[in-house]
Write a structure and sequence with these properties.
By secondary structure, the chain is mainly α. The chain is 49% helix and 8% strand. Strands 1-2 form a two-stranded antiparallel ribbon. It has a two-stranded antiparallel sheet with strand order 3-4. It has a two-stranded antiparallel sheet with strand order 5-8. The two termini are 36 Å apart.
Length: 319
């Protein structure tokens, strides 16, 4: 789409995606809004194509077009001409046939790859870089860990299996602590106690919650609980995840680390997101030393942390 090469949102796709997600969150909280936005009058205006000054599709239309192009090339037997993408690999693994339903499913999966998890993964990566830029001693510890346990160091993190990276204690501690302090989704969609469950008892509440009660969880608050993480719950201390001698406290911390949600509705792409974060962090550490300041991160919360600015000073790493 030319966004990375240009260094800016040339077709307004990112802005349109963020606006669409806000609408989606609103519908998730107020389900009757779905009837309004799916009405012919509203949906026709939302789907109306928008164009850039030079005549190219913009916004959601640009995303849809970018999704459909590899599908068209695949049907013509010219998939090799498509640029590298998740969709291209998906089609290579499951070749498109004449079945229209399967083609529609593939397109929907590709759209999910664009809308679901991209902003939250980016917010998580920014949080990790911010904390490492503030606490450079931990940045050094992670790099030395990489150098001592993986020799010789490769030129790219692509050459390091996630199964190996996830076993590095300091790297794991920095990632978990950064996400604990800045969960990409600070709060979650509310749920309703179902009629079939009867009253639900929650530890700490004086009485069971009757059916029909709307309940929710604030991950930002849970991940900073002093009763779980201690009086320093608001501080960046990755060492809390290393070699805990209190197994019960470690268990409680793991349970409270609800960055990806908990239970049957936990994020289905948790492992994919963690792999991307580990590899991205290592890719940076192999080449650069990062520094930032307390004021270097600017963001807002619309159910999902939106990072507006992260000022980082990058210095080529000296071997």
């Amino acid at each position: 789409m030319g966004i990375i090469s240009a260094g800016e949102d040339v077709c307004g796709a990112i802005a349109a995606k963020e606006a669409a997600i806000k609408i989606g969150f609103g519908i998730g909280i107020v389900p009757w809004m779905a009837q309004i936005f799916s009405s012919k009058f509203i949906s026709s205006r939302l789907r109306r194509p928008k164009y850039t000054a030079d005549g190219r599709l913009a916004g959601i239309g640009a995303i849809v077009q970018h999704t459909q192009e590899p599908m068209k090339l695949a049907r013509e037997g010219k998939l090799d001409a498509a640029p590298p993408s998740i969709l291209k690999h998906l089609i290579e693994d499951e070749p498109i046939e004449s079945d229209a339903a399967q083609q529609d499913l593939t397109e929907r999966e590709a759209m999910n790859a664009v809308f679901a998890g991209t902003g939250s993964t980016a917010a998580g990566l920014n949080a990790i870089l911010y904390e490492m830029g503030l606490h450079t001693e931990w940045q050094s510890r992670v790099f030395e860990e990489l150098r001592s346990l993986i020799s010789p160091l490769p030129q790219s993190s692509m050459d390091l299996p996630y199964s190996d990276l996830s076993k590095l204690p300091n790297l794991r501690a920095v990632v978990k602590e950064s996400l604990r302090l800045s969960p990409p989704f600070p709060s979650s969609f509310p749920r309703e106690v179902g009629m079939s469950y009867g009253a639900v008892a929650i530890p700490g509440l004086a009485a069971p919650l009757p059916p029909g009660t709307k309940i929710g969880a604030n991950h930002y608050v849970i991940c900073r609980s002093r009763s779980v993480f201690g009086d320093d719950a608001d501080e960046f201390r990755p060492e809390r995840w290393l070699n805990s001698i209190d197994d019960e406290k470690q268990k409680r911390m793991e349970e409270a680390w609800s960055v990806f949600g908990r239970g049957p509705r936990i994020c289905v792409a948790k492992d994919l997101a963690m792999m991307m974060l580990y590899k991205a962090v290592v890719a940076l550490l192999l080449k650069w030393e990062a520094k930032t300041t307390e004021e270097g991160l600017k963001r807002s919360n619309d159910f999902e942390f939106h990072v507006h600015e992260l000022l980082v000073s990058l210095t080529p790493r000296q071997e």
